[in-house]
């Protein structure tokens, strides 16, 4: 694509924002208004103007988003140029930076990245060693607290500078928190490991302590671009600010109405601070939505208008009016899932829509089970994002632990995990003794292991020998990891560690599936080695690089198996930045969404509402919102009340559908009629107390949902729905209008009719779903 064509694909404001390359720029704009597109085109434009890709840094919310942007840019400027861009999540970019310069802070360049599971295990271990009450010092709680301090750049040494921290911890009955935090930080450091938050914290420390390193990166990153700026936390904010300080060519894009990570420390005030930091910054507002139909855009606007804290924006679209938003009241979660699966199947067959056009979003991961079951029953392929990832499976983590040890044997969590797996006679007592020795000698577990022969007295002769043999094996793995490709080293380690044998011996169904998973991991390593050579500029095929790569996958990246034709299932949080032709948001019920934990303050409730706004604005053509009358939660069936958010959608954009069991004629109602189901008592207003339900006046029945064009749909004729038909029949279809049947094929549920529609042209439809009505010719 040449320069001219590139700019043609933008509207006036977008183009201006792309061309304004020098100086600070902030683009605060509504959902689907082309923020990400502007960012992508800006990079392409910079490169077309001769900017060296080495001088561009782009920060995205997921690695997948970065990859897609890179591909788009490559199409404009060429693959070999695009390769050299530094583009990715904050974590992957700054981990890369720390690999290069982290040694200044005393880290090895092959430092390990601890995942949440590793961190929690380490905390459990520390709590145990300190003889603290494990019911009070819960690892998750402690880790959240550590994370929040780290993201505010409060290291243990600063803890006492803020008396309110101690007050908080005492009130939370964790007075020894500081000791745990201190020990945790020391242990990670000794093990040559960083947790996720360290990646940002240590980058800050590095840039703040060494002016020459800061200067190096300031010079390198002449142009800095940040997507989803509304969800950056303090630590990220400080990094960007430092890096941009010299050239001030910084462009941030975001939408305050989509800020949904406050619970993880994201700070919406970063948007306001930006204006303060760069008083001469240029601000662009994009208001035209290119993604969604008018009904969807307007409905989303009517919801977000209920938030008090927001920057004024007027999001509009010139897209088609589109179908109304369907609100479906189900009996329970099974029936809800069934309804969703049916609608997917119906659209897939009737309109030939690929499965990848559909997304099902929910508030909590637990909701996916019922949905999965119904999708499986209909053989609808799907992919779940988030939840338990492949890399968290036990057997996968076991092999990974060996690989991690090969790269960094000081990695304490990996060592604890496999020192006696597969079983090699190193018991719990021996491990405890090793831990005490490490503590006494102020060194790592690994240092004790590799010198185990010198600790025969403390360990006993036989255990010392076993530990020593284990250490010899790990040392040998290390040699290979340095010399061989990731694939060669991993394959060897898989066999020599005894994992292959252990899994092979287990002939249970579960054992076979475990072996399959480990083989899948090896396949991943193989394809990493193969593709790495062609994709990245550094051609690094080492095990070290592979481990780094997977440690930083985000939840949206993890499940991307490259298979394109699947329905996507994910939480609303993960859906940020994505778009799908058809979106279902399930579980639109009080207590679930808004979550019962998020209704106590206005700020929390507004964050939930923004989350709903994010969900709604993912849909391009059609949005379904479903809620249930009853739902099983925590093993109990509860009565549910429709979400207050449903009330907030302007009636004119919705239609309510009730399931067959409490539906008399007609099926379609315009506007909400939540009370129409059984067992509802009526009170009103958006904040009706939990346990009562709200009702708005149901509107009169109208015709079926509108068509995809602005023209009024043809009036639906009376007549029975055809289950079989013959060529020559004159028929009516809800969406395509009138037509003549040309051909019929297949049998039973697979009967397909080819129909020549007067307006819509020729279509092949599955009779079971097409709901054709026979009319007089
Ligand atoms: N000028 C344009 N012409 C045609 N299509 C456009 C234009 N600008 C954006 N789009 C399309 O509109 C959709 C939304 O764009 P994009 O994802 O960049 O929006 P966004 O503001 O980043 O959305 P979100 O707030 O969800 O992150 C995309 O499919 C994009 O290709
Ligand atoms: Mg975007």
UniProtKB/TrEMBL annotation:
Indicate the enzyme's highest-level EC class: isomerase
What biological-process GO terms show up in the record? Answer: recombinational repair
Query: What is this enzyme's EC?
Result: 5.6.2.4
Q: Which residues cross the membrane?
A: none
Q: List the protein's name.
A: DNA 3'-5' helicase
Q: Where is this region: Disordered?
A: 674-719
Binding of ATP occurs at 29-36
Q: Name one GO molecular function term.
A: ATP hydrolysis activity
Q: Which family does it belong to?
A: Belongs to the helicase family. UvrD subfamily.
Q: Which organism is it from?
A: Schleiferia thermophila
Span of domain UvrD-like helicase C-terminal:
294-577
* Record field: catalytic activity: ATP + H2O = ADP + phosphate + H(+); Couples ATP hydrolysis with the unwinding of duplex DNA by translocating in the 3'-5' direction
Key words of the record: ATP-binding, DNA-binding, Helicase, Hydrolase, Isomerase, Nucleotide-binding
Domain (UvrD-like helicase ATP-binding): give its ranges: 8-293
């Amino acid at each position: 694509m040449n320069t001219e064509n590139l700019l043609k694909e933008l509207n006036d404001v977008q183009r201006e924002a792309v061309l304004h390359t020098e100086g600070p720029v902030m683009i605060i704009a509504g959902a689907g208004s082309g923020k990400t597109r502007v960012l992508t085109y800006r990079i392409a434009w910079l490169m077309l103007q001769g900017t060296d890709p080495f001088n561009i840094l782009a920060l995205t919310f997921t690695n997948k988003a970065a990859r897609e942007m890179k591909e788009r840019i490559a199409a404009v400027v060429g693959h070999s140029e695009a390769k050299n861009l530094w583009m990715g999540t904050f974590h992957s970019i700054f981990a890369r930076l720390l690999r290069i310069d982290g040694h200044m802070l005393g880290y090895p360049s092959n430092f390990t990245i601890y995942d949440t599971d590793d961190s929690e295990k380490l905390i459990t271990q520390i709590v145990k060693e300190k003889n603290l009450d494990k019911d009070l010092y819960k690892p998750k709680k402690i880790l959240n607290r550590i994370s929040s301090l780290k993201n505010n750049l409060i290291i243990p040494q600063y803890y006492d500078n803020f008396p309110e921290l101690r007050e908080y911890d005492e009130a939370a009955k964790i007075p020894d928190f500081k000791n745990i935090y201190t020990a945790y930080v020391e242990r990670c450091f000794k093990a040559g490991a960083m947790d996720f938050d360290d990646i940002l914290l240590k980058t800050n420390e590095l840039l703040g302590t060494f002016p020459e390193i800061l200067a190096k990166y300031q010079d390198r990153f002449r142009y800095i671009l940040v997507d989803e700026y509304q969800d950056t936390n303090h630590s990220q904010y400080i990094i960007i600010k430092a890096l941009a300080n010299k050239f001030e060519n910084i462009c941030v894009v975001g939408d305050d109405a989509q800020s949904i990570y406050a619970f993880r420390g994201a700070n919406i005030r970063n948007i306001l601070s930006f204006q303060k930091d760069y008083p001469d910054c240029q601000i662009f507002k994009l208001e035209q939505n290119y993604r969604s139909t008018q009904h969807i855009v307007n409905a989303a606007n009517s919801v977000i208008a209920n938030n008090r804290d927001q920057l004024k924006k007027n999001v509009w679209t010139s897209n088609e009016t589109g179908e109304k938003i369907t609100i479906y009241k189900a009996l329970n979660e099974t029936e809800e899932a069934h309804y969703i699966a049916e609608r997917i199947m119906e659209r897939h067959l009737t309109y030939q829509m690929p499965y990848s056009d559909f997304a099902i979003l929910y508030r909590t991961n637990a909701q996916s089970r019922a949905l999965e079951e119904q999708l499986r029953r209909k053989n609808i392929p799907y992919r779940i994002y988030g939840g338990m990832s492949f890399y968290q499976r036990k057997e996968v983590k076991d092999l990974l632990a060996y690989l991690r040890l090969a790269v960094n044997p000081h990695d304490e969590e990996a060592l604890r995990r496999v020192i006696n797996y597969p079983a090699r006679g190193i018991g719990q007592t021996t491990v405890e003794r090793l831990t005490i020795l490490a503590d006494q000698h102020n060194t790592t577990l690994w240092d004790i292991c590799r010198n185990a022969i010198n600790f025969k007295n403390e360990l006993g002769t036989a255990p010392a020998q076993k530990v020593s043999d284990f250490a010899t094996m790990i040392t040998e793995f290390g040699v290979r990891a340095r010399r061989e490709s990731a694939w060669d080293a991993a394959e060897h380690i898989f066999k020599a560690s005894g994992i292959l044998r252990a899994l092979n011996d287990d002939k249970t169904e579960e054992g076979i599936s475990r072996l399959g998973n480990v083989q899948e991991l090896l396949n991943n390593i193989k394809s990493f080695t193969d593709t790495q050579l062609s994709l990245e500029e550094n051609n690094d095929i080492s095990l070290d690089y592979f481990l780094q790569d997977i440690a930083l996958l985000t939840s949206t990246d993890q499940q991307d198996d490259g298979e394109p034709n699947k329905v996507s299932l994910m939480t609303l949080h993960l859906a940020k930045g994505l778009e799908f032709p058809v979106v279902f948001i399930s579980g639109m019920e009080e207590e679930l969404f808004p979550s019962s934990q998020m209704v106590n303050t206005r700020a929390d409730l507004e964050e939930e509402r923004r989350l709903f706004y994010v969900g709604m604005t993912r849909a391009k053509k059609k949005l379904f919102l479903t809620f249930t009358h009853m739902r099983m939660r925590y093993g109990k069936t509860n009565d549910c009340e429709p979400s207050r958010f449903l009330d907030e959608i302007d009636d004119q954009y919705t239609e309510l559908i009730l399931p067959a069991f409490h539906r008399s004629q007609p099926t379609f109602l315009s506007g909400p009629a939540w009370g129409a189901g059984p067992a509802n008592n009526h009170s009103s207003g958006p904040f009706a107390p939990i346990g009562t339900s709200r009702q708005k006046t149901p509107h009169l029945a109208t015709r079926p949902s509108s068509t995809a064009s602005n023209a009024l749909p043809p009036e639906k004729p009376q007549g029975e729905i055809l289950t079989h038909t013959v060529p020559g029949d004159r028929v009516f279809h809800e969406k395509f209008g009138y037509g003549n049947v040309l051909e019929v094929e297949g049998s039973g549920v697979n009967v397909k009719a080819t129909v020549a529609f007067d307006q819509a042209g020729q279509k092949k439809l599955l009779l079971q779903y097409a709901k054709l009505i026979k009319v007089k010719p």
